[in-house]
Write the structure tokens for this entry.
Amino acid sequence: MDIIQLNEFLNYKKNFNPDPQDIVDIIIWKAKKYLKADNVASEIQRTYEFAKKAHEWQLRLSGEPYIIHPVEATLILMELKPDLASIQTCLLHDVMEDCDVTAEQMEKEFWPEILSLCEWLIKVSKVRYKWEDRQLETIKKTFLAMAKDLRVIFVKLADRMHNMQTLSFHPEMEKRVKIANETMKIYVQIAKRLWLYHFQVKLENACFYVLHPEEFEKINNYLVKWFASTDKYIKRWINCITSMLQKEWLENFSVSGRIKSPYRIWEKMKYKYQTNEISNIFDLLAFRVITWSIEDCYTTLGIIHKYYTPLIKKIKDYIAVPKFNWYKSIHTTILWMFKFPVEIQIRTKEMDAVAEYWVAAHYAYSDLDSSNQVNKKQAEWIRKLQELVNAYTESESKDQFKDELNIELLNKESFVYTPKWDIIELPKWSTVLDFAFYVHTDIWLRFKNAIVNWEIVPITHIPNTWDIVQINTFKYRYTANKYRISILKTPSAKNKLQKYLKAENLDQLIEKSSKILNDKLREFWLPFLNSKDDAIWNMYEKKDLQKKLLDALEMKWIYSELIKSAYPEKYKEIKSQTTKQKIAEVIWDSKKGIIIDDDKLLNYVLCPECDPIYPHKIIAKTGRTGIKIHNIKCKALKTVHPENLLEAHREWEDKQNYSVITTMLADHDVNILKFLDAFMKLNIEIKSFSIKSDSSNTKKIIKIARWINNPSQSTMIRNEIKRFWNSIKVINREFE
């Protein structure tokens, strides 16, 4: 399609109103060229008369009689050389949905095949894009899965193409943008998936025209200015390539040229070249040589490279190695034909049919050599696909359908309607309760019962693809409970219910922890949590306080931390009185009330050498004989590996931090800043740091004091120091 044809497509018949019968005559003329049945003309005319009568009093927004739309859509469909049933379906595609025509009338007037295609078109028409990109894959898969017969898709694409042609007549800009978005998101993608190149190009440029009018105008004006004259560019060089190939005795070939469409150029400007100037885009022109045989393709490639310089990295042989969709062609990009590189594609007629129409090639080019391998492949692919789609709608055998369409989840999914015709994609074997979870939180929380296809079903019922599912709910009652987890089949629904139940559980746990805290507050004669004079509630955000209360169930010392932070003076006073009582107990029995690493049930012994009695700071050491409690000044700790040390404190004391002083000997050229950076990365609080030269003035003595809340942290620090082991050596470590 050249730029003039594209503009004609987008500026649909604004200057005259066509006679629909004239268009029907063109359709009949085209159909008779490839359909051999004697009744082709009479059946198409009869179908047109039926549709015209059904739409008799209807008008489109353009002011035209409504019958113009199905007729124009059918003319577009003729590009695929459809069968008679497809032509009739396209002419009739709106009569059941928009007119007072019943299924019984359709079946009586025509035959079951036409009725079935029209019914499936109505279902496809229900698919809508609602501005949620997360639904796109569902929509695309649904669209394909609903195509019991691929002809439904072809008709629907032709219908949408004519709607896009006349979109400018819609009075609401917002509506035009919405329709263009829907077309780009659904119909362009379906055409692309089915490799209907001509349909894809027209649709995406029609969308581009609406969604980005300024960019479209800029690119279109440039193309019209420089490339509208085919004599100046394309036709001239088609003749040049033709003469060159004839000069080398090549026969039975044709040459065509095209300019890239405005949308494709805009894509290149935006994503590939990242420029706003169209003049920076070189590959605007492309030529195609259609040959008689594969041998001629390679001969053509050799002739072109004889006269023009190829870009080696741009030579692609898809004949030897076809694409996964059976696309075959040779691509080469050459220099010196123009001031910029030009791509030339070389392929046979059969390859061109596959490249341009893919799944439609079997219909559009049925006159090709039936013995040809490509055509056989196409015919087989179409036959298999139609059988598989039919099997998909009637049974659960979907494996091959998934492989052929390259839709990964189709064999695991079902597509269910809401009463408003929204589509919900559900994993296979999902129940109506799973459906409720996918719709909305209020639905599954208040689930009352389910109605499938207007009949009440059990909560365990598994809906089939295309069932209409309605969920009834209680107004004021929550019904979600733990027994429904076994009914759910989808992991996401189970997770939602478990989170809900856990949240309920959390409320109970927070309530339990609050009671424990209130008991502690009672001991200190302090206000209860969330009472009038409560300082704890005012000190923390609700979320933070709830987290602390939950953590306190595991780490009891958090209760004391909460009280101390909110009531420091009162806490200090009460603790002082408690300490005096505890001291008396400890002097009587030094083993009482020591907590090791937050555990007060561990067995331990006291070091007989350092006599760790109150008020000396203590630390725990693990070894072969068990746990031993030491005074932090004990000489035995100097040779102990940090991994064997544990935090320890007396029951009435707060959990303590340790001050550790490490002395190191370092080479004179050591990078002190890099060394300190290692400590900063570990988030270690440094109390003090000093550095001086030794007596020989060849080394540095580094002394660093730091706070740690767990003695084993020294291991991490030691590992960091090992990065400098050649230049730094620990010579002493002591606690204070």
Remarks:
- Confidence is low (pLDDT under 50) at residues 131-138, 361-386, 388-411.
- The longest helix spans residues 491-523.
- The radius of gyration is 40 Å.
- Residues 64 and 347 are 43 Å apart (CA to CA).
